[in-house]
Amino acid sequence: MKFNLYSLVAAILLPSFAAAQLSGSVGPLTTRASKRSKVCNVLNYGGVASKTSDIGPPLASAFAACKTGGTVYVPPGDYGMSTWVTLDGGSAWALQLDGIIYRVGTAGGNMILVESTTDFELYSSTSKGAIQGYGYTFHAAGTYGPRLLRLQSVTDFSVHDIALVDSPAFHFTMDTCTNGEVYNMIIRGGNEGGLDGIDVWGTNIWVHDVEVTNKDECVTVKSPASHMLIEDIYCNWSGGCAIGSLGADTAISNIVYENVYTWESNQMFMIKSNGGSGSVNNCQFNNFIGHSNAYSLDINGYWSDESPAAGNGVLFENLSFNNWKGTCADGATRGPINVVCPSGAPCVDITISNFAMWTETGSYEYYKCENAWGSGGCLKSGGSSSYAIVTQTVTSAPSGYSAPTMPSDLASGFALTASIPIPAIPTTFYPGATPASTLLGG
Ligand SMILES: *[C@@H]1O[C@H](CO)[C@@H](O)[C@H](O)[C@H]1NC(C)=O
Ligand SMILES: *[C@@H]1O[C@H](CO)[C@@H](O)[C@H](O)[C@H]1NC(C)=O
Fold first, then answer.
1. pLDDT value of position 11
2. Could you say which residues form the signal peptide (predicted)?
3. Which of 166, 234, 261, 318 has the fewest CB atoms within 10 Å, i.e. is most exposed?
4. Are residues 368 and 295 in contact, defined by beta-carbon separation less than 8 angstroms?
5. What ligand is nearest to the CA atom of residue 410?
6. Are 404 and 430 a contacting pair, CB within 8 Å?
7. Is 199 a catalytic residue?
8. For residue 120, what is the enclosing H or E element?
9. Ligand that lies nearest to the alpha carbon of residue 187, given by its number in the listed order
10. Per-residue pLDDT, 20
11. Picking from 220-224, 265-269, 404-408, which range would have the lowest pLDDT averaged per residue?
């Protein structure tokens, strides 16, 4: 292992910080090895390694046989899928996806839904397992199809070492999940909205070392959520990471995003609501690097893509943004700081520090604040009432804005009319950072 200051500091600081941020241990309760004491190989349940076969029923049968302790095994090879599966219940089981599943069916819903289970692991032992959604066949016609993967009410789990490619709709959703770890994943979707990378809500989840390409959510937290640590995320031509969209009774707290690298996305980070109630509080957003994004730090309490929800506005309170560097596409059109809070619930205790973003176009940029209190940027201090938009013009590059790029940022998004190739899982997700776990097949 190469020794450098970063890894030394990371090795000393990250485990304790992760422990402080999360509310307990994450991941499955028993090992892959123990789950392999019983293996249910889909080939023994009617599975056929062919791109035009239907792995759905064999997967469901193998699951039924192994769901109370064992490994459902999809060996290396190509498999078609025309019947979607709901893998419900069970515990102490794994889905070892070493093969590649290609979408054949056209129904809506979720190709693979895992629900109400515990001590669960979805992984590829070769790091080459994937789901290929062939979303382009829908997108070329201007429509959407099924989502690839959904975990619902799953506890003590991990998902890692797989690629999710070209979903006809969302790629990976975690709905009301607890004690999870997601890592060493790549998600590559078409270049349009509605193809979310990872959407997550629940409690005590660590998402790290993930790359997303699409033109919508990169790794996004939805309500209700608490105690999440999301770090070493590479949004390689995406929509960018976000919290939202938020509506009535929002309950989000104790979320930390750090080491987030964003290239050619809609934003580096956005918190989005329109009306609504409840709050987002006690969150941190540290160590962000961005290049060529439309928005950078963007809090929008009047997000017009969302129809107004009941309530005076979601309260954003005690949020800190520290150490943001890089460049934005055009800081005069879309300033790198945009904090627009609801007049019925002005933001309070917002901290922006070590913020050094400069514009790639023109010679000045704006910060814009409205109904927003705290320190840094154009935030007003010492109050909590509503106020009209204030702008601050920045006419020279902030010192220290220069930030590294990733070795091979995407030069353009993926076409909506041609198949997207299945990529290898990368081994770095943030400049200079080494993933917390090595690839299983590395
Ligand atoms: C603000 O949030 C941080 C976590 O980001 C927490 O440690 C701190 O106690 C909170 N401050 C207040 C006043 O609640
Ligand atoms: C970003 O995506 C492009 C296109 O697939 C790929 O060539 C490049 O390697 C990715 N960047 C990194 C650092 O993985």
1. 46
2. 1-20
3. 318
4. no
5. 2
6. no
7. no
8. strand 110-123
9. 2
10. 74
11. 404-408
Residue 113: inside a domain: yes
Alpha-carbon distance 30 to 69, whole Å? 10
Q: Stretch 227-243: mean pLDDT, rounded?
A: 97
16: pLDDT strictly greater than 70: no
Categorize the per-residue pLDDT at 408 as very low, low, confident or very high, splitting at 50, 70 and 90: low
Q: Does the residue 78 lie in any domain?
A: yes
Tokens for 145, please give them: 């199809």
In a domain, 432, yes or no: no
Q: Annotated catalytic, 216?
A: yes
Say which of 216, 227, 232, 298 is annotated catalytic: 216
Instruction: Tell me which of 190, 206, 222 is where a domain ends.
Output: 206
Residue with CA at minimum distance from ligand 2 atom 6: 410
The response to whether residue 411 sits with its C-beta less than 6 Å from ligand 2 reads no
Q: What is the CA(409)–ligand 2 centre distance, in A? A: 5
Q: What is the pLDDT of residue 442?
A: 80
Number of domains the chain contains: 2
Identify whether residues 395 and 306 lie together within a single domain.
yes
320 Cα–ligand 1 center, Å: 9
| Same-domain pairing of 157 and 67 | yes
pLDDT of residue 406: 82
- What CATH number corresponds to the domain at position 295? 2.160.20.10
The residue out of 191, 206, 221 marking a domain boundary is 206
**167 and 297 part of one domain:** no
Name 366's Cβ contacts closer than 8 Å, sequence gap at least 6. Answer: 331, 332, 335, 391, 392, 393, 394
398 and 294, same structural domain? Answer: yes
The whole-number pLDDT of residue 19 equals 54
DSSP secondary structure of 4-48: -HHHHHHHHHHHHHHHHHSSS--S-SS-HHHHTTSEEEGGGGT--
Q: Rounded mean pLDDT of the chain?
A: 94
For residue 142 and ligand 2, the question of a CB distance below 6 A is answered with no
Which residue range forms the structural domain that includes residue 265?
Answer: 238-409
Distance CA 163, CA 423 (A): 7
- Asked if 250 and 171 sit in the same domain, the reply is no
